[in-house]
């Protein structure tokens, strides 16, 4: 199989999807921000009481999903029909981020979902960096995708992350 | 210490840096894309022979560094004076990304460096996803930063990533 | 009825329009810039003779209509098929702005029309602020919208503005 | 006094501020969204309990302040050093929006403050339009500005809005 | 025939394409950068050996194709399905640039192809300007376009360029 | 002398200008759009009487100057202090475009001036393409630049264009 973003001379190009059918597609991506427990507790209480880091990260992630094709050079522009971000703070020191994106189009939206997770993670970092510079953004990965000719993809949950 | 992005009512704001001095600042961030060995070999040979995934990722990362304040809601706009991305393919299955950004300004450029790494990683994912959907973007973190009142930060190399 | 931009946990999201049909839609929005009579006369004559504030405002409004989904966080990206701005200078001291936007899509274009009016108004302010800082942008409102399941909306002309 | 955005032939241009000194500047703008009392109550309770229209509007306003020169054709690009949005829900049916922007630069930031108010107002409209299409954005105006050669401006509070 | 971008009062507008059918369309544009032979040789060898001016210009051109409607005021937003840039260095001192863009849409993509060529040319200029300030970007023109009601257009090769 | 946009491994980077002094800089670029005489006459009369292609092109060029660093990958972001576009219709069939840009900064503004000319030319093309598809954009070149260490550059008027 070929790296489809390269033509026969090895130069980059936007893959030609002109002949592809428009189908309903969705993608789910996830990622984590690992941080000091004190930072994590501040985000957690802030989300409930007053300052809401996650509300800002959520807006940033949704806006980034819409801007994906302007950031990733070979990505096709897509008029996404849905973008949703979720956060889980179950394990101390870890903010888990999930992004679901949908479209009716000729290509998938995994880049949109991954970009939403990445920018939400960067926003969390930005808003907490005054108290914690050692945060790490990790495990940004595609969990599931559906629609289109390549069929349903579901990440093996036992796979090493 | 406070989460500086929230005012006394807990609402988000852009931190007021009006009174800060303009100083020379730099930041170095790193991150990794983990992938199947076959994908990694394709990138590696492509970089030398013909199709160059890393050349595209590098351009994407530099352009993203310039767009950081448009992506991260509370980030200050900064006229960066230097942006540089490096890639290392030493360990099979791992592309290591490094980004160095400089500015003479009132705030630091760690978000610019982290954004450059993230978007370069997303670009690598995008260009290889036809052959490998299980790639993971990880360990995106600040390594070093200098300039400004908060002083020199250097990540403890022994710290868990 | 629900505030559709919030999910069941109260977090913001882009409303899922995946299942909606693509229909022809249009929206008409209006707004006003109130200013000193002297400023208004300058704009009026300028529009005919030489400097044309309204020509610049018109371009700005059309370009803003295309950028709506990048400005308004929960707005869906839409490939609009028509954007038109009109100005009326009938009442001394008042520039009336009208914007009509069309699309064939899954959601309406009222935000595009309102954004076009707002940015045209801001542009008029910007171009005249050297001679008049007291201008006020007002009565920015949806006049009419058609297409889609929610049916035809026409603003009651007797309604308080 | 001249409409400074036009040259001697009447064509639009970006005013030449090359010779101006860099000074500390700030601007305060205000505006209102008028709506049905039921909508207003939903926003008010949402702001306290769960769904937070104003949190999203605030992020949108701050991001718009940074993008002002990309929206308003003759506006100079400025690296703003502070942006803050406030909302007051004192009078039933009215959301009052205030935006304060600061910069150290060669031109003022009134357009940035006015743009922040306008986009925050548009975002409130967008998030509530499913329950209320008759909302009106009004009284968007400059309240105060300081810094630069033109001196301190403070809007006469008795002036008609 | 009329200048379709002006309404009956002579004001600019985005042409209303709402009633047009969606058809498969493509456009091919070309252009040249003329430069000193020494510069040209550096680009040529660089492309093979080490620094690759054309790889950066290619990415810039593809990204610009996607941003066309944000740059050209009356251009319709289009979700392009393919963008491809080619370079030829056959004649010493001349880099020939070609861009092919495709879409399924209501309007053509000639502006996207011409914008891609222009931005690729500007990028070549930018990357070589330290050694050659006299480069000239020329002969940027539409070569061929297909799809839509206006039929197939093919530039007469004998026409003066 | 080196192609400064490449590091020692031949990879592209944004040139490090951190150590450069901020100086007053300006650049003047020019270009031409060649077209059928009938098209040219329409633009000329339109510019005086009613529809004004050049007014739209002028706004587009000024806005593009501000967006240069987002289009050209290795360009530094610069807060330009002046942008001015002029058009001359002296020779039948030729629209001559001139752009002057100023900044106080660490790098020059030739790319901003050249980008303004290119986008103004593309806008003229876009607005007239319904009546003339054979227009050619040519002779886009730097005429003069001042400020910074590299000294005053003035294009030799006898040089082949």
Automatic annotation (TrEMBL), chains A, B, C, D, E, F:
Q: Which Pfam families does the UniProt record give?
A: MoaC
Molecular function GO terms recorded: cyclic pyranopterin monophosphate synthase activity
Kindly give the Gene3D superfamilies that the UniProt entry links to this protein. Answer: Molybdopterin cofactor biosynthesis C (MoaC) domain (3.30.70.640)
SUPFAM superfamilies reported in the protein's UniProt record: Molybdenum cofactor biosynthesis protein C, MoaC
Catalytic residues at: 126
| Enzyme nomenclature, EC number | 4.6.1.17
Where would I find the Molybdopterin cofactor biosynthesis C (MoaC) domain in this sequence? Answer: 14-148
Keywords (alphabetical) are:
Lyase, Molybdenum cofactor biosynthesis
GO terms (BP aspect): Mo-molybdopterin cofactor biosynthetic process
- Determine if Lyase is one of this entry's keywords: yes
Catalytic activity field:
(8S)-3',8-cyclo-7,8-dihydroguanosine 5'-triphosphate = cyclic pyranopterin phosphate + diphosphate
In what pathway does it function?
A: Cofactor biosynthesis; molybdopterin biosynthesis
Annotated residues for binding of substrate: 74-76, 111-112
Family statement drawn from the similarity comment of this UniProt entry:
Belongs to the MoaC family.
Fill in the subunit field for this protein: Homohexamer; trimer of dimers.
Biological role stated in the UniProt entry: Catalyzes the conversion of (8S)-3',8-cyclo-7,8-dihydroguanosine 5'-triphosphate to cyclic pyranopterin monophosphate (cPMP).
Protein name (database record): Cyclic pyranopterin monophosphate synthase
Please state the gene responsible for encoding this protein. moaC
């Amino acid at each position: 199989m070929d790296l489809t973003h390269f033509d026969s001379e090895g130069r980059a190009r936007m893959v030609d999807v002109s002949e592809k059918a428009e189908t309903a597609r969705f993608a789910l991506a996830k990622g984590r921000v690992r941080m000091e427990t004190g930072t994590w507790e501040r985000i957690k209480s802030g989300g409930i009481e007053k300052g809401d880091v996650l509300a800002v990260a959520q807006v940033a992630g949704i806006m980034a999903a819409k801007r994906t094709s302007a950031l990733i050079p070979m990505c096709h522009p897509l008029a996404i029909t849905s973008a949703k971000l979720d956060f889980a703070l179950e394990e101390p020191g870890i903010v888990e981020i999930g992004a679901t994106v949908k479209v009716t189009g000729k290509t998938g939206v995994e880049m949109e979902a991954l970009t939403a997770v990445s920018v939400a993670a960067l926003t969390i970092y930005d808003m907490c960096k005054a108290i914690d510079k050692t945060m790490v953004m990790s495990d940004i990965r595609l969990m599931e995708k559906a629609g289109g000719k390549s069929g349903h993809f579901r990440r093996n949950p036992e796979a090493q992350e």
